[in-house]
Amino acid sequence: MRCFVFVYRPSTRQRRRGMTLIELLVVVAVIGVMVALLLPAVQSAREAARRMQCTNNLKQLALAIHNYESALGEYPPAAVNWSTAKHPNHGCIAFILPYLEQASVQDIYDLHVAWNAPQNKQAIETNLPFLLCPTAPHKAKYTCDYFADTQFFTDGNAMRACRLRGIHPRSWQGFLQQQTKSYYKETIVHASIRDGHSHTWLYFEDAGRPALYDRAKRPVVSSQGVPLSAGTGDGRWAHPAGYFNTHDICGGQLMNCNNNNEVFSFHAGGATFARGDGSVKFESEAMDAAVFVALFTRDGGDVVRD
Question: Pick from 294, 295, 263, 289: which is nearest to 277 by CA?
Fold first, then answer.
């Protein structure tokens, strides 16, 4: 008997071949190039969304301030910092809580005692997310990235630089004003904004508090490597020292020099501002100093061309 053994040999068309090392490296390289090309676009889209949220936050604050004025006939103080029982200390946000749809916080916040009195502990230890710019780093609780800038600091670097450039407004004061025991007791009403509401900034970014950040958006540390704090008020939304003044100028810029009581944002190339008419706009940090001063002052007697 004869036995036949059949051996099956697949044709070359049916054979499967794996990827060579060279081919695999080429694929990896192509993927790497695609990721490198797409990543900036993704990051840009994310920052655009964060900046839009920051704009919405400031819009909400501007509307709350205007609703306060409509109800009471005057604008809220940038802060009350009298340090007396008759005039207990509070930050601006404390006065506009009901106009920010924060009635539940307002119900447990007592304006008749100081902001940090035991009665207000639960209220001031409430995080209010709309007070935080999503681009800024947040390393502390109960903080805020938005405050009133009340004036150019008298004889500060910023004022001196502006005067040397021939900028001499009638007044160096901003929209809102703090009320203290010794000075700045003026109540701001609609007629106080003589330069026009659409041409005057109302509320500002001063982000990242309580940590101190420099022009490159990096935290500033001491020689021993300890993080330094920015300005007064420790960044909490209820703190009566939360307002600030414009002091510094850097490379011709009047914003984004640092967040030590200055206009400062973590957005690239500028900051977001709420104007007195309720509009909100992103402004370039390269803005001319004369335009900055004109938009800042409420009664400067200057003409804005922006």
Answer: 295
Q: How far is CA 278 from CA 2, 56, 63, 76, 304, in A?
A: 101, 11, 6, 15, 17
Convert the pLDDT of each residue in 116-157 to its tens digit: 999 999 999 999 999 999 999 988 899 999 999 999 999 899
- C-alpha dist (Å) from residue 230 to 124, 157, 212, 241, 296: 20, 18, 4, 12, 22
pLDDT of amino acid 187: 87
- Residues 76 and 61: their CA atoms lie apart, in Å, by 12
In the numeric block, the tokens 């920051």 are attached to 54
Q: CA-CA distance, 43 to 27, in Å (whole number)? A: 24
The pTM assigned to this predicted structure is: 0.85
Return the closest-CA partner of residue 276 out of 183, 191, 177, 200: 200
* Per-residue b or e along 48-83, where b marks 16 or more CB atoms closer than 10 Å to that residue's CB: eebbeebbebbbbbbebbbebbeeeeebbbbbbbbe
Name residue, tokens 């021993």: 224
Rounded Cα–Cα distance for residues 262 and 61 (Å): 19
Residue 227: strand pairing partners: 221
pLDDT at residue 242 in the model: 86
Instruction: Give the pLDDT confidence score for residue 40 in this predicted structure.
Output: 65
